[in-house]
Amino acid sequence: MKTKRIRAGAAAMTGVLLLGACGEGGPGGSGGDFTDGKLVLAVMNDQSGVYKDASGPNSVKAVKMAVADYKKKHGDKAVVDDIEVTSTDHQNKPDIANTKAQELYERGGADVILDVPTSSAALAVANQAKTHKKLFLDVSAATMELTGAQCNKYTFQWAYNTYMLANGTGTTVTGNGDKNWHIIYPDYQFGQDMTKSFTEAISKAGGTVQGTIPTPFPNDNFATFLTKAGSTNPDVIGTMQAGGDLINVVKQFNESGLKERGIDLAVGLMLITDIHSLGVDQFAGTMFTDAWYWNMDDESRAWADRFRDETGTRPTFEHAGNYSAALQYLEAVQEAGTDDADKVVAKLEGKKVNDVFLRNGEIRAKDHSVVHDAYLARVKKPSDVKEDWDYEEIVTTIPAAKAFPPAEASACSM
Amino acid sequence: MTQSVVTPTPGTEAPATIAGGGSRRRWVLLAVGLVAALALPWFVYPPVAMDIVAMALFAIALDILLGYTGLLSFGHAAFWGSSAYVTGLIATHYGVPFPVAVVGGALFAMLLALPVGYLSVRRSGIYFAMVTLAFGQMVYFIGYQWSDLTGGENGLQGVPRKFFGIELVETESFYFYYAALPILLLGMWGAWRIVHSPFGRVLVSIRDNTQRARALGYEVEKYKVIAFVLSAGLTGLAGGVFAINHGFVALTELHWTTSGEVVLMTVLGGIGTLWGGVLGAFLAVMLADYLASSGFDGIDLVTGSVFVLVVLLFRRGVWGTVRHQWLARQQRRTSSRRASASADPARRRP
User: Could you tell me the pTM of the whole model?
Assistant: First the structure.
């Protein structure tokens, strides 16, 4: 017993010493000015829970693809050879995200943290980024706070936010003639934000919101809420539910007979993995705003083919967003010739970008919101689906300037 | 005469060691514990080390109710979380040194525990657990909906860490650990005092035989409420330090899963052992921390399996089992000594 404890203690001590030694490794990079002689890209997301498919382990692979592309492009001229990609599971718990981010910046040698779904976790990581003066490129969290009141110099929001989701769908669907809305939303921050943004977009487009119904979260039975929403005979019911709840809403909407009465369904946030898990027939005809779609043009498709070779599945916009964020970060490092966060931020700010994910993209200097074209999509009919994951049809492209709120509207001051 | 109406739960042999057990052994254990607490941040990442000690006090506070009073509270997240929020709000709005904010949070938790405890202790067993769970969820939803104050889903962000202008403590988590440790150790000492006082003995008697305790003239309900409030206060101390440690408060601190987690830690370490909670917290926090960066995607599977294994193999919890073995061995030794002592003269007799 005693010897075992001593042995365990010795093992722990050796571990600590080894870790310490790793941290002090001499410079090994070629050229540039790099701490530890290497660049560490830390992907932090949900590797085991509800958001696993939407981002998860495949986002780590997407980031590795970006590293490979960077090395291929710059070859011998690359300012850093040793690029490490690490993966952390925050289990969607903000306190784990907080501690792990701190540890990654302080001890893991992380130069940048990527991804981080779940708004509360993302805000916690943003605070750590601010404290440690290291970069944080958020891809999968939607909260406007990241580029609003709680923005900071080292945090960027790469892919989307609640305004983008609401504005695209709300404006276009209303413009297409569905003037009267009834909204059901999960009663927490995301649902409330989405409902607010939707209501603004709808009334700006000349429509009216007849009513909004908060629902518990999470919830299984939406029948009463749907009946209540249907009782005012709206043109369209908007649902702000996400993930598993969304699947329940759509199923029960289809069973409720509202569709036969000519009432449409518009969805606030939907990922292609949601369509995949419930089946395209359940969603057929549903309109929603997408930040990116793998089959929207040849460039995206070529990348999605590579992604499929790596992972065996098609990418969501969050996967593509992680690829883009990692790639642009590496490009900025290449330009700056260092991993010094302030210099890299200076290279990123105001940069106009076009890559596989960002079309007409701009990394806004004022609030660090990365704006780009967004897309209004419609789910295909089962008969139109030609191959696996071929679920979406792009109805219109929403130009970057319209897809995101104007910089002046942001509450951000750095 | 029958021993008691209520059969005591296995593993709760707390009073036995109070009476027996050498004081020398206790001092050795105390010294080992203190050295371990002081050495922890050298081996474990300091913020994680702080979490372990805070969670340990949380588990100990719960054990006062679960192990010594026989009440399974399933709503302790309400006191942990509300103290975290109040601590965070005091620190944010008044800029006081963090120990002051933590004490404020703990006082609030006690204040909140008064009505909750008063209403809950009228029931026992599963009903008590359900009532406390209900109160816990009520507090959770208040935190959820009152987003102007609490930040709702996004949590309370950017809680400052003030400590009399000593910059090392304010910025370096390693030094912060040593600044906050005394608060938590004081809480643990308080818990030890509570269960070893005459008041604590009354609690144990209430646990073992409520009717008899009442027949002896003790106001059982009053004792239970006081135990509940004290437990909530210690929980609040731990929750406050936890909030300062992380620099923010998440809504999950109020969620019932946090209540479940601490029950798990207490059971893991051993119910009614007080210090078992420290081991339980250490195991649970280290496991969660290790698995988070292990690249393994079945975290809940592992923690669940560990829990099942511990319950199956160590019914008294880790600490409880070790202590039980130790006591059994000592008893065997003394009885065999006694046996040989009495056997010797017998042999000499012709």
Answer: 0.80
